[in-house]
């Protein structure tokens, strides 16, 4: 199987998925509840402090390392555009609940 550096066949990605890479990757794999405890405390702090903002390449890399692997459209992934990858509204709500000790 030919594949790419991301492990996803080019025709298996959405047309605008780009070449992969940290800031252009589509995250999936484990669910948010599963990878949350696997990311570094610094990443969790960043996600709380920057909730709703585009994910930094370092945060995308840490989520991927923790099990949010490059794949297709999970519920917790929001829009992707020139400013980067965003979490969905539901994911930002989930993070806010956990930051407030509600989750």
Largest sheet, strands/sense/barrel: 2 strands, antiparallel
**Widest sheet: strand ordering:** 1-2
Count of separate DSSP helical elements: 5
The shape, in one word, is globular
How big is the Rg?
13 Å
The number of strands is: 2
Work out the helicity level: 25-40%
Short description, anyone?
The chain is mainly alpha-helical and 103 residues long.
Q: Which features would summarize this protein structure in a list?
A:
103 residues; 5 helices; globular; disordered N terminus
Structure, described:
The termini are far apart. The chain has one domain. It is mostly helical. A hairpin with a 2-residue loop joins strand 1 (77-81) and strand 2. It has a two-stranded antiparallel sheet. It has helices at residues 21-24, 32-35, 41-49, 57-65, 89-99; strands at 77-81, 84-87. It is globular and about 35 Å long.
Which helices and strands, and how do they pair?
Layout: H1 21-24, H2 32-35, H3 41-49, H4 57-65, E1 77-81, E2 84-87, H5 89-99
Antiparallel strand pairs: 1-2
């Amino acid at each position: 199987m030919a594949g790419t550096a991301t492990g996803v066949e080019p025709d298996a990605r959405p047309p605008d998925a780009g070449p992969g890479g940290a800031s252009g990757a589509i995250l999936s794999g484990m669910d948010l509840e599963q990878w949350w405890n696997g990311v570094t405390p610094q990443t969790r702090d960043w996600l709380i402090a920057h909730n709703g903002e585009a994910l930094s390449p370092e945060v995308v890399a840490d989520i991927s390392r923790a099990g949010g692997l490059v794949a297709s459209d999970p519920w917790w992934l929001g829009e992707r555009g020139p400013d980067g990858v965003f979490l969905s509204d539901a994911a930002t709500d989930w993070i806010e609940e956990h930051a407030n000790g509600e989750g």
